[in-house]
Write a structure and sequence with these properties.
This protein has 780 residues and is mainly α. It has 41 helices and 2 strands.
Length: 780
């Protein structure tokens, strides 16, 4: 039996056609024994010998069988394609055959007469491997010269491959395993004629590829990307989105902190991940981030001309599997065309065809689709290892003021009567491009503001002056980051981006999915060291009242929205006497306060950050000598409620009980830190033994002695492992609580003291028969 073909593009196979392929297609051989032809071909597919199996059948036999099986002449076409695609061929006849093959494989629907789709037959008889070989031929050198095939020929090959990937299961995965082919595809994007087809095929392949490719292996990456026009760069961002994002395992268990810690230890020994390497490769390309910023902030009037856009839409329509977006775009075009035609006839004006005059709504949607991808790439880069470098560039290239200028007209524009939606969806569906752009915009703001002094670029000059005035009136030093802000890089116009966000946030309908993202974006502005001026800036704009209305009066049911609102409320009120006064003014009846408490107690995982902030604020207020503070302490229902020891113990018991080492995630680890805050403040007042003794009593009252304190002991052991090696996390704990990290560590060490005689050690309150503190919780 002939040897298996050498993979196209692999070392030994370059420079000549594989011996097995030549032998196979050089003659048809004898007629095979009767049997299951398709089974034999499938076996050949699995072993990489599909072409060898296929050519064992005579042309006459295949023609006869074609009449019976309705193969549409595909095996015969493949024979001719192979024959006319030799290295020294002029490819004219080859290209004609490809055109015919493209027509045949374009038919994706099964008819009553056929058993298998044409793309399946094409792949079964080795067509996919043959096209890969034809496409990669430019990588082969003959006597020092590179062979070339036309762009049209490459385009047909790509079209056939894409149709086959879409219609035949397993083809995309097989192509993804050919790493040299995947890397080679990037080189086809140098031509505008083949760019769109290549980009979409790469995107599909990368979507199923098990291992992420490395962009630094792409030949001349910097030159390739630098030569893209803005339209190509925007489409290229769809590929980049896959190559710079860390691969998700899709398993919730793998998101536990135990698993993440184990993965981080493994990563340290392996070096940077492929995603990190790809991010660095992109940032090393001159002008890359600057061009992304220009794309993100480009106005609709500055976008591509009508003719080139219509040409691109035609190309998408020609070969995209899912034309729903295009169908919707063309529907909008037809609606506006009919409207314009009617208006022209009434006014006696000549009518301009929609094919030559692009409707404004289509231009807007085109720009929205581009900006979606660009904002995603910028957002990922902002969260990567080179965050500070990206921050500096984004500030320098004025991304924030540019987005501010687009806010009303594009990002948060009002829906028109014919706003684009996908078939089977509505305008409020998360699949809508309009909706997705808004969410991506909010995610970018969150990443940009989070623990970074550049957050003040979200304001304009007048608003920065307002922050300074607030500090001056309160007789406190101005925030250093405000003083250091480059005024030439901030937002212009009457309102900054943060203020615009607050305005739309307050108008958002109760059931809106945007509420979560809006709250997260605003909260990120407040994160870090607490700033009285930042809080007052937002309080003056009615943010606290809006949050309380959503929590209490609208009785919000969404857990995600509630969590984001509780987190934001905590940051807004922390250590701020004025905020507590405003809270008490709004929650002015026992009925309202009970609704508020019900929302807090319904899920402590969601509300524990607010509980922590109020607890910390109470501790600070109790140690201040000030009439204004004393008044708030005596009148505020919330502070009075938190000050009661039974209330604190109830929170403490439930916070410890709802988490375990094996289920700790980035989301619920805050429950552990909130329980520690309560105990640290108790320790300051020399009441730590009292709180531990009360926990012991609560255990016994539940008839499960030891179950809570054993769990807490394990949680604290994990806390030491997790935080003592994480500078960022420890800094966040210190900044947000205004408690030195050394005090955090000391408190944990005291609680874990193995001396059963220590009144502040957990083991002193666990009876010997119920002791279970040495459990191994290491992730396997």
């Amino acid at each position: 039996m002939a040897a298996a073909p050498v993979a196209a593009g692999s070392g030994a196979g370059r420079g000549r056609r594989s011996a097995a392929t030549v032998a196979a297609w050089g003659g048809w051989g004898g007629r095979p024994r009767p049997g299951n032809i398709l089974l034999q071909l499938r076996q050949g597919q699995l072993t990489g010998r599909g072409l060898v199996r296929a050519v064992q059948f005579t042309e006459t036999f295949l023609t006869e069988r074609d009449k019976q099986s309705k193969w549409s002449g595909i095996p015969q076409l493949l024979l001719k394609l192979h024959t006319t695609s030799h290295l020294h061929s002029d490819f004219v006849e080859c290209q004609n055959i490809l055109k015919a093959m493209a027509f045949v494989t374009e038919e994706r629907k099964l008819t009553q007469e056929t058993t298998y789709p044409n793309t399946y037959i094409f792949d079964l008889f080795g067509g996919v491997d043959l096209l890969v070989e034809i496409l990669m031929r430019p990588t082969i050198s003959i006597r020092g010269q590179k062979l070339k095939i036309s762009d049209e020929m490459s385009k047909d090959c790509l079209s056939i491959l894409y149709n086959t990937c879409v219609c035949t299961e397993g083809v995309t995965k097989r192509l993804a395993e050919k790493n040299d082919f995947v890397i080679f595809l990037f080189t086809l994007m140098t031509s505008k004629k083949t760019f769109l087809q290549t980009a979409t095929l790469i995107e599909d392949i990368l979507g199923v590829k098990k291992e992420m490719i490395r962009l630094d292996e792409v030949p001349n990456l910097s030159s390739l990307v630098s030569n893209f026009d803005q339209q190509q760069l925007a489409n290229f961002c769809r590929i980049l989105a896959v190559t710079i994002s860390e691969m998700d395992t899709g398993n919730d268990d793998k998101h536990t902190l135990l698993a993440k810690n184990a993965q981080q230890k493994k990563s340290l020994s392996l070096g940077p991940s492929a995603a990190e390497i790809n991010q660095a490769a992109l940032l090393s390309i001159p002008g890359f981030v600057e061009r992304l910023c220009k794309l993100a902030t480009r106005k609709v009037s500055e976008s591509t001309g009508t003719a080139s856009f219509l040409q691109e839409l035609e190309e998408w329509y020609t070969w995209l599997d899912n034309a729903l977006v295009l169908d919707a775009l063309m529907r909008v075009a037809n609606e506006e065309s009919e409207h314009n035609q009617g208006a022209s006839e009434e006014n006696g004006l000549p009518h301009t065809s929609a094919r030559t005059q692009l409707p404004q709504s289509m231009k807007i949607m085109h720009e929205i689709m581009y900006k979606l991808e660009v904002l995603y790439v910028l957002c990922v880069l902002l969260m990567g290892r080179q965050r500070n470098q990206v921050h500096r560039m984004i500030a320098e290239f004025k991304l924030i003021p540019g987005l501010n200028n687009l806010f009303d007209k594009l990002i948060w524009r009002k829906h028109s009567a014919s706003a684009l939606v996908l078939h089977g969806h509505n305008q409020n569906c998360d699949c809508s491009p309009d909706i997705t752009l808004k969410i991506q915009f909010l995610r970018l703001l969150q990443s940009f503001s989070d623990h970074h002094e550049n957050k003040y670029l979200l304001l304009n000059n007048q608003e920065l002056n307002e922050l300074s005035a607030i500090s001056l009136k309160a007789n406190i030093p101005e925030v250093e980051a405000v003083l250091n802000t480059d005024r030439s890089l901030v937002c212009d116009g009457k309102r900054g981006l943060l203020t615009r966000l607050l305005q739309v946030m307050k108008k958002e309908p109760a059931e809106s999915s945007f509420r979560f993202w809006q709250a997260r974006a605003v909260e990120s502005f407040l994160r870090g060291t607490t700033s009285y001026a930042d809080q007052m800036f937002l309080l003056k704009r009615g943010l606290l009242e809006h949050i309380l209305y959503c929590i209490v009066d609208s009785e919000c049911k969404s857990r995600d929205v509630l969590q984001s609102y509780f987190d934001l409320l905590g940051e807004l009120m922390k250590f701020n006497v004025d905020a507590f006064k405003r809270f008490n003014k709004y929650i002015n009846t026992d009925a309202k306060f009970q609704v508020f408490l019900k929302q807090i107690n319904s899920s402590l995982v969601d509300s524990n950050m607010l509980v922590r902030c109020v607890t910390l604020s109470l501790d600070r207020f109790e140690n201040q000598v000030d009439m204004k503070v004393a008044e708030v302490l005596s009148e505020c229902r919330l502070l009075a409620y938190i000050s009661q020891v039974p209330t604190q113990m109830s929170f403490l018991f439930r916070l410890i009980n709802i988490i375990h080492v094996q289920t700790l995630t980035q989301e619920n680890v805050s429950c552990l830190n909130t329980s520690l805050v309560i105990l640290m403040l108790a320790r300051r007042k020399e009441r730590l033994p009292l709180y531990l003794r009360l926990l012991q009593r609560m255990e016994h009252s539940k008839k499960y002695p030891g179950f809570l304190l054993n769990n807490f002991h394990n949680l604290l052991r994990f806390w030491q492992q997790h935080y003592l090696h994480k500078d960022k996390d420890s800094t966040c704990l210190e900044n947000s609580s205004c408690i030195s990290f050394s005090y955090w560590k000391e408190t944990v060490s005291i609680l874990l003291n193995p001396d059963r005689q220590s009144p502040s050690a957990l083991v002193s309150y666990i009876e010997e028969p119920y002791m279970d503190i040495d459990r191994d919780f290491t992730e396997e």
